[in-house]
Fold:
Amino acid sequence: MADSNETSPAERTADPNYRSVTVERVGLKHYRARGANGATLDFGQGEGLLTPVELLLAAVAGCSSVDVDIVTSRKAEPENFSVQSSALRVEEEGAVRLDDVEVSFKVTFPATDEGAKAQSMVDRLIKLSAEKDCTVSRTVEHATRVEFINENPTRG
Structure:
């Protein structure tokens, strides 16, 4: 797709590769994300809420989890499937970002022939996810343009 500055909003949303989520304020430091299919997820700062940074880490782990789970579960149901995503907070010239993101898998299958087949696939699937299949981690890894637009500019 061309640079968003070269396309109209209608052209952008008509693109079959277009993805979006809407975030609305529920209350003080409490927000709700709504996907195109209507699914929602609350987040923010406070009791029982993941922070936006934790959501980013969850998205990286979740994307790769799906990649690994879809294929291995065709062979066997896992006994344990846990994925931890972590990063280091870095402050540079007053701006903050994350660095050194790690995604650690703890996945085990039953001691059966099917379980052994599934277990033998995990390393390769993690590598495929990291190098090709996980849109979230590949987006984080690569320089990605992010544009912020104020749709309600100040009235003068």
Remarks:
- The chain has a mean pLDDT of 94.
- Residues 52-72 form the longest helix (21 residues).
- Residues 68 and 124 are 9 Å apart (CA to CA).
